[in-house]
Records
---
Amino acid sequence: MNETTGSALPVSDRGVAGAAENAPATRGRLNRHAMTRQLAAWGFVLPVTVYLLLFYGWPLYRNIDLSLRHYTVRSFVQGGAKFVGLQNYRTIFHDPTFLPALEHTAIFTAASLFFQFSIGMVLALFFFQHFKLARTLRALFLVPWLLPLIVSASTWSWMLNSDSGVVNAALGVVGVGPVHWLTSPTWALTSVTIANIWIGIPFNLVLLHSGLQSISSDVYEAASLDGAGSWKRFWLVTFPLLRPVSAITLLLGLVYTLKVFDIIWIMTRGGPADASTTLATYSYQLGFGTLLPQFDTGAAVGNVLILIALVFGLAYIRAQRKAAA
């Protein structure tokens, strides 16, 4: 026995023994702390998961189910629709309206994205100069984005009116026109594309301007010292460093433009003679625009639209992973 303490163990051995005795309690506290954090994490995730399942998962499932059955108004209300597999998809693929609608969707989306992004980039570079009244003018450019779409579409319908529109009035001053913007199969798609470009420019301006602010001024100073002019600084510095922001801007613009319906429907209703019909308006016409609604084929067209957006979304994710690697 140790004479000083009256203990059978040396001081060092007693410390080791005490630590060994406290180890289970320490592990228990750590486990409880980890469990608490895990429960807190699930507590945050659960509401989002429920929201996504209720407002995205269930409607998507219903839309897929609609496209795989033969629905009538009666079966839509009372149930009992017959399962027909991919028959509705074969029906729309053989419909003479489908391919023109797909082509119009591609043209409408590509033209909108190109001009929205290009003009938005030019405006973002312009307002990045920090001149006087830059903030005020930039705020005014947001007006098209803030206006309700029904107001914007109605305004463009009035401006492009063949008889009393200000656009034809301005063209008449220089001896051109009148152009039948909304009633001619040649110009209908162009008209709705112009309106959509005008509405989407502020969105591109805001995102690209935010991206420009994240680029350090030291990079531009180093490029200037190396003798790079304005054009070379844009192509060698600004554009490469804006690539992540540009990619997400184009992706969001693509998803938004693919599903544009209200602008086209208000201005032309997809006409004349389906000249401005896109997949979005085609789906609506099938499901709600006829006396005998075709909910099943309308849902099939909607799913094709979702699939196209999904393909581009997955391509974006894959490109981002490659860039990160």
---
Amino acid sequence: MNDIADFGFGTQIRKSPYFDATVRWGATGFSVYNHMYIPRDFGDPEQNFWNLVNDAILCDVAVERQVEITGPDAARFTQLLTCRDLSTMQVGQCKYILITNADGGLLNDPVLLRLAENHFWISLADSDILLWAQGVATHAGMDVTICEPDVSPLQLQGPRSGDIMTALFGDWITELKYYWLRETELDDIPLVVSRTGWSSELGYEIYLRDARRGDELWERIMAIGAPMGLRPGHTSSIRRIEGGMLSYHADATIETNPFELGLDRLVAVDSDVDFIGKDALRRIRDEGVRRHQVGLVLEMDPLTGPNTTFWPITAAGERVGEVTSAVWSPRLEQNIALAMVATEHTAVGTQLVVDTNLGPAPASVVDKPFYDPKKSIAAGRAT
């Protein structure tokens, strides 16, 4: 694995600008996301979790590719792609959005960044929205340019991330609000910094705008951060499930609609804005859905890793849903899971049975997120 030249499946899977640095710093396993390698193993995943929640970790998330939308009609076109009302979105602001198709199915749940009046980035989860956006633009009759820019994010996440970012960039970091961004430089490296991240912890994303300087940026951050507790790491399945955060292809697919996920607040079917899937989503809202995402606690020995198949859920011997993401939380000392379950079995306290890879396990429906439900940790000030 440490022989970088021998690692991989060929040139069809891209390496990030930080790939060599992550291997030097201990990455021993990768998976593929948006046609790129992403580090998934820096050793014990529980230790990675504790590093995240107690101090800070630096993660290579260059796989969060950007779809850049520019041109005179950029704002109107971007609104067409998402069911969230963007009419009040300001320059310098970020928003968590949903991208749906004409049937109301979820295609991606990215973060949208507005860099200028007619300049947007869609920071993607794992699906080919660049192709979708270019296809929509072909028939939209709008003046827009859509491309994938030279942009590769890092995530610096955890309670010490604010101190580390202040040491890197200065005191202005403490004034950067949750889900806002700023264009900046570090040692003349062009960057965008945002108060966002896939961890439910205090955190930042650092968007590199020159891939040639990826190794330099990684080493600069680690040199400043390591004495303050920063460790190289990978996005934590434990923490994101604790926080009820979606993983596309696991917890949501093109067959899932926002109402099943409890994301009604992000669906502006009663507004004046126009977007793809509006009629279908209004109909789904009015008719009601037959299943909902819930949180579960599984009564069984601690899981040694996340589920790699969708576990069936039964009630009185009848299949009523499936577990999409499950993991042992060492902080909560529980096996916790996100699941899609028939609506009549979603009340808190409902008893179900999950057919895990280790055999049947009793399960209880609980409130989600499992930890910090108001996201006060992530949304709190950096100081």
---
Amino acid sequence: MRTNTFLLSALLLITGSLKAQTVATFDDLILSHPDTFYVNYTAPGSDVGFNDGLAHFPCVYDTGYGDTTWSYFAYSNLTDSVTSGVGNQYSAKTATGFGGSANYVVVSCFNPVTYANSVILNLTGAAINHPVSGFYVTNNTYAYNSMRDGDMFSRKFHNGDWFKLNVQGYSGGVLKPDSVTIYLADFLFPDTTMNYILKTWQWVNLGSLGNVDSLQLSLSSTDNSLFGMNTPAYFCMDNFTTDETAGAGALHIANELTLPVAKIYPNPAGNVLYAEILQNSVQLVSITDLSGRIIASWPVTQTRLELNTSDLAPGTYLLQLSGNGKTAGLRFVKQD
């Protein structure tokens, strides 16, 4: 079975102690005015990135191609979710940061030295050699519209296509084998009505990577040529969250179900949340609030459940999945 961790958003602790976290919201990073972005054009070829929370987000730009090109991380408050093309490379398809915030990060996932579609960010201070809880991710407008419509470099996505982000951790300079994969576009469903290109903020849980001191973020696509990936190598990030007081062992759930457990969509949810059950051992699903209070429960009688969420107040909830004495939890957001 294909492992798809998109929308297996935020596998959370059902048991265990509370842990201190630091969230890089990027909202305290100064932008000169609304609808703009920031790249420090002062030192070509050098790291002109920025720090927020307990992480360093590098940025390198080059003027050797007749214009200015950049790679890695820039921060933005652009709201243009409509305009296609590379001229709109600094905007998120959501038009805002997570939760309607102004600022978010745009990632140009291209290494100008190795020519690989991967970048690295480094943890700082107390976060080094501790787990990263995760971050929110969505598509960049340029990449989203390119997959939706095609352009002079890339083709329109069709059945069988995908665009995904893979995250791995480094510890002590060594790349660890475990990884988390997030589908930014998924056209692999037998039921083609379920095909999607991500256009909402989705949580990416990285607790399974354990203790790390940096992360490698890599993009790949089914649209490639002899010169590499045709799909624009961009995505957007918000609320990068480190877990500096926890050890890797603290992220293990006692009696946890083996991943992947389920996919849930849409997220954020409106009046209906769909759960596609991926394990036969799941017997019961329950919606709980973040304190663990059970709001509603349903027996698992089929692999695709339609859950009524119309009575839920806007906010964040867990979909708890149980079976054979084991549990796992998926976080979702209920919106108005």
